[in-house]
Amino acid sequence: MTQKSIAICALSENEHKRTALYKMTVSLIRAYANIADELTAAGYRDVNIKRIKKHVDEFVKLREIIRNASGENIDLKAYEADMRHLLDTYIEASEPKVISPFGDLSLLELIVKTGIGEAISQLPKGLQSNKEAVAETIENNIRSTIIKSHLNDPAYFDKMSQLLGELIANRKAKAIDYVAYLKKIAELAKQVITPSNPISPKIDTAGKRALYNNLNENEELALTIDKAVKDVRNHDWLDVEARERVIKFALNEQLKDAGEVERIFAIIKQQPEY
To answer: Counting Cβ atoms within 10 Å, is residue 81 exposed (0-12), middle (13-18) or buried (19+)?
Structure first.
């Protein structure tokens, strides 16, 4: 089993545990908010009230550390304002708490937009001071993005996965210092988030780039297939068998191989421009 497969399996095997923690933390916040103003009346001493508040805060921070380290982007918008209000009111009234530390940006987008130093400064405090945790958090986010994007351009993201694996191996073997590692991982994040176009100016769209990458960088064939698909496609052809067959026929005219037709067709289906 490859290092990539092991990491994916580990994330998958523990997904139910993470989900349970996320849900239970939210329940804890709500339960605490419901009684926070009545703890004194309920007979709790100040020292115990402070201890309970501290424990709730610790679980909130733990939840954020785990969520970010696992590279998960769960949908918080439905209750984010509510949670922020509860946290501001009952946990950290003097310092507003942001549930989603990156706002609408993913960690990788933040790295590309602001630089890796600023992105790291936005991580939960429990992560920032731990170089190993920071590295694993960024790596997990890159791996997660590669997995999600793989169908769009298998050849390209296979290459990104290989580069990530090599970088992880070098880091663990201490074959690269931390500063150099951060520079390289930031470069990789940029390549994953914003794939670069090949040298040729004719490969000027994401769809053409995906064809080019997955046809052994054969520019002429990629452009021919791009034109053929655009010439024969019908409106709303996706998942309409008869219309899909028209495109497959056009592909077969160029590829002359049923297996290749299916492989390239699967990639074409992922491209919005087609």
So the answer is: exposed
What is the rounded distance in angstroms from the CA atom of residue 82 to the CA atom of residue 165?
A: 40
pTM score, two decimals? 0.67
Burial of 168 (0-12, 13-18, 19+ CB in 10 A): buried
d(CA 180, CA 182) in angstroms, rounded, equals 5
Query: pLDDT of 203-248, one tens digit each?
Result: 999 999 999 999 999 999 999 999 999 999 998 899 899 999 999 9
DSSP string of 49-93, one letter each residue: HHHHHHHHHHHHHHHHHHHHHTT-----TTTHHHHHHHIIIII-T
Name the average pLDDT for the chain.
82
Domain boundaries, given as residue ranges, for the chain = 3-100, 125-193, 206-268
Residue 104: what residue type?
D
- CA angle (87 as vertex; 39, 144 as ends), nearest 5: 135
Which helix (H) or strand (E) is 247 found in, with range?
A: helix 241-255
How confident is the model over 33-82, as pLDDT tens digits?
Answer: 777 777 887 888 888 888 888 888 888 778 777 777 776 654 444 445 45
* Ramachandran bin of 97, using left for φ above 0, alpha for ψ from -120 to 50, beta for the remaining angles: beta
Distance of CA 57 to the CA centre of its chain: 26
User: How far, in Å, CA of 187 to CA of 212, rounded?
Assistant: 22
- As a whole number of angstroms, the distance between CA 189 and CA 187 comes to 5
What letter would DSSP give residue 104? T
List the one residue out of 105, 116, 126 whose CA is nearest residue 58. 126
